[in-house]
Specification:
Layout lengths: L1 H30 L12 H12 L52 H4 L3 H9 L17 E4 L8 E2 L11 E4 L1 H12 L13
Antiparallel strand pairs: 1-3, 2-3
Helix pairs in contact: 2-5, 4-5
Length: about 200
């Protein structure tokens, strides 16, 4: 019985130390990090679009954390500078991602500022990148015989528009595009070592 208590006590001490070092200390270090002055909070439309991003599982294929030049050629891919903790000051929960089946989206708003491009790409990705494995999201659009006043018609490349129809963006995809356009972290970062 004595050995079992020692084993259990040792396991609890190890767990407490690991939790302290890997969870509690980083929490207090990052808690002090402030947002860069150029980083603006999300608008209401961007927050709704962020939720569409989460609901559609975009995080499973796209990261939002370019790595340092020493770790990966992300800057050569055009994904921008390496991210810093302050870049995520307004992100709750953080959408860093764990895989890169598709490109990193940390700076997609700077790389692709066109709403038309985003709308068309979400309706039919292969119209813009032939070998793309990204799924299309037709349920975020209406395909109509004719546009009505106030409709946001999506201009598709030749050969990808449904014959005799118009593609109209729903409000959810317009919010998603607002979120994607807001992912622009091209401002300079001043490295302030928080102590």
């Amino acid at each position: 019985m004595q050995d079992e208590l020692k084993l259990f006590g040792g396991a609890m001490v190890t767990l407490a130390l690991a939790t302290g070092v890997l969870v509690i200390v980083p929490f207090f270090q990052i808690k002090r990090v402030e947002a860069p002055a150029a980083l603006k909070p999300y608008t209401a439309a961007q927050l709704r679009g962020r939720q569409v991003y989460i609901n559609n599982g975009c995080i499973y294929c796209h990261s939002q954390q370019p790595r340092d030049k020493a770790q990966a050629p992300d800057d050569k891919r055009g994904w921008g500078r390496a991210s810093v903790a302050g870049d995520y000051a307004y992100d709750v929960p953080h959408l860093l991602g764990t895989m890169r089946t598709g490109p990193d989206l940390f700076n997609i708003g700077a790389r692709q500022p066109s709403a038309d491009w985003h709308l068309g790409h979400l309706f039919q990705p292969r119209a813009y990148t032939r070998e793309s494995i990204m799924p299309s999201y037709p349920y975020l659009f209406d395909v109509k015989d004719a546009a009505e006043p106030g409709d946001r018609v999506v201009t598709m490349p030749e050969g990808f528009n449904p014959a005799g129809k118009v593609v109209v963006a729903k409000s959810e995809v317009l919010d998603l595009v607002a979120y994607l356009q807001g992912l622009d972290h091209t401002y300079p970062v001043i490295n302030t070592n928080n102590k």
